[in-house]
Amino acid sequence: MITLTVNGRRRRYAGPPFKRLLDVLRQDFGLTGTKEGCGEGECGACTVLVDGKPVASCLVPVCQIEGARVRTVESLGKAARLSALQKAFVERGGIQCGFCAPGILMTASAGPAPKSEDDARRKLAGHICRCTGYVHIVESLMAARRKK
Amino acid sequence: MTVLRPRGAAQALRMYARRPDAIPLAGGTDFMVAWNAGERDGRAVLDLSAVREWRGIRRTAGVLSIGALATHAELGDDHLVRRHFPVLARAAAAVGSAQIQNRGTLGGNVANASPAADTLPALAVYDARIATAGGGGRRLQLSDFLIGVKKNALLPGELITAVELPLLPRRPDRQLFRKVGPRAAMAISKTVAAGLLWLDRGGAVRELRFALGAMAPTVARLKAAEEFVRGRKLTPALAEEACRLLDQDVAPIDDPRSTAAYRLAVSRNLLREFLAPRF
Ligand SMILES: Cc1cc2nc3c(=O)[nH]c(=O)nc-3n(C[C@H](O)[C@H](O)[C@H](O)COP(=O)(O)OP(=O)(O)OC[C@H]3O[C@@H](n4cnc5c(N)ncnc54)[C@H](O)[C@@H]3O)c2cc1C
Ligand code: FES
Ligand code: FES
């Protein structure tokens, strides 16, 4: 039995200890916001925060998350009440197909806000987006920062 | 499948002695890629992530001891590593991405023994020793620990506990870390270089240490070039001769990431620039 906190809620998990955190979130806890892109740690789509830090949930067996605090994109806002960061992405075209967004939003919400566009690009270096060309994503991040 | 989850060092060694067929697991950033691809099916796993004794970074008499389970993010942020071993701090910050640095460990990078691993040239120029436990426990020079492509000298039941770096007697006058790849993040290096250079008052070379990754089956110190420049004044001709000698200690290959010719050319450029006279 593994206990962990997901988006502020205590959860228990009793399945195979080596199931990927990504699959436990999606299949066992019904949190399908987190996406699988590559399954190899390369694309960043599956990024969630573990104890406040971005990690690739496709590379983490759930047994290593015992007792940890996990945050997924579902913790940011609801469709009717988006967070400032999510709104900025919608308004500035930081989202097209949206597949990369759950991961990018989690990395963007970890740690201090970027100081410059360069800083924002460095922060998001572990994410791949096939649609936007990144310019709008960086603009979204900078816009959300101004609103804070 | 069996997952062994020791809560401490002693328990980890006991469990591993009983099940030497188990595969050690640290941050999982190498292991899980293979696991997800089905390449480790049916194997037992020894998950070290809850072993506290092998985390953390400590300074003892003349040595910085970095726990095998210290993550790249911890190394990049640690003030002792940044002050005394800045080339290693920069190497750690060049591994993969934030997500990889938050899970991947120094012990895992060393044990995995990839020719292109980014921390290994930094460890090579700092004369790192690999401390192990299980079967008595040993201290191995990095060059004795890495015995081939993805092959290390660990015996059944033996684990890396720490990487030890002797503190440098004096600050280098020049230091270099440089990773050459198609992009800054998430790229396996075509070549990766670390360098330290000490000059004497007259401007002659007191000592050069230069190491290259992805240029041979294991990380290579440029012994011929290091010997040649000792005691000589830095001149363009000296740098040129050191670059000519570079291929005595490496044997790059063509692979999907690069060609031997490109790797040699770019490595020579890095060494030439590092040794260029500066006024
Ligand atoms: C997307 C991606 C990008 C990457 N980019 C880079 C990069 O830019 N540069 C780079 O150098 N690497 C890179 N890597 C490789 C990897 O992240 C590093 O090698 C990392 O340091 C491995 O550490 P780990 O703790 O995750 O190891 P694990 O995956 O847990 O283990 C790796 C191997 O080491 C063994 N092992 C681990 N700890 C010990 C121990 N204490 N004693 C004995 N054996 C042990 C394991 O059995 C396993 O065989 C990347 C990986 C991914 C997935
Ligand atoms: S799905 Fe995990 S990084 Fe791509
Ligand atoms: S919006 Fe489609 S992948 Fe980024």
Q: What do these coordinates show?
A:
The complex is a heterodimer of chains A (148) and B (279). Chain A is of the alpha+beta class. Chain A is built from five helices and five strands; from the N terminus they run ββαβββαααα. In chain A, a hairpin with a 2-residue loop joins β1 (2-6) and β2. In chain A, α2 (84-92) packs across α5. Chain A is globular and about 45 Å long. With 279 residues, chain B is an alpha+beta fold. Chain B has two domains: 3-166, 2-Layer Sandwich (Uridine Diphospho-n-acetylenolpyruvylglucosamine Reductase, domain 3), CATH 3.30.465.10; 174-274, 2-Layer Sandwich (Enolase-like, domain 1), CATH 3.30.390. Chain B is built from twelve helices and 14 strands. In chain B, α10 packs antiparallel against α11 (236-245). The relative contact order of chain B is 0.11. The mean pLDDT of chain B is 96. Classes of the chains: A alpha+beta (148), B alpha+beta (279). The A-B interface holds A 16-18, 20, 39-42, 44, 47, 50, 53-56, 58-61, 63-64, 66, 107, 122-123, 125-127 and B 1, 3, 5, 25, 28-29, 32-33, 35-36, 45, 47, 49-50, 73, 96-100, 102-103, 184-186. The structure holds flavin-adenine dinucleotide and FE2/S2 (inorganic) cluster (2 copies). One FE2/S2 (inorganic) cluster (FES) binds at residues 36-39, 41-46, 56, 58 of chain A. Flavin-adenine dinucleotide is lined by residues 23-31, 33, 48, 68, 95-96, 100, 103-105, 107-109, 111-112, 117-118, 154, 159-160, 186 of chain B.
List the helices and strands and how they pair.
The complex is a heterodimer of chains A (148) and B (279).
Chain A: E1 2-6, E2 9-13, H1 21-28, E3 47-50, E4 53-56, E5 69-71, H2 84-92, H3 101-109, H4 117-123, H5 135-147
Parallel strand pairs in A: 1-5
Antiparallel strand pairs in A: 1-2, 3-4, 3-5
Chain B: E1 3-4, H1 9-18, E2 23-25, H2 31-36, E3 45-47, E4 57-60, E5 63-67, H3 72-77, H4 79-84, H5 86-92, H6 98-103, H7 106-112, H8 119-125, E6 129-133, E7 139-141, H9 142-145, E8 146-148, E9 151-152, E10 159-166, E11 174-180, E12 191-199, E13 205-213, E14 220-221, H10 223-229, H11 236-245, H12 260-275
Parallel strand pairs in B: 1-3, 2-3
Antiparallel strand pairs in B: 4-5, 5-10, 6-7, 6-10, 8-9, 11-12, 12-13, 13-14
The structure holds flavin-adenine dinucleotide and FE2/S2 (inorganic) cluster (2 copies).
One FE2/S2 (inorganic) cluster binds next to loops of chain A.
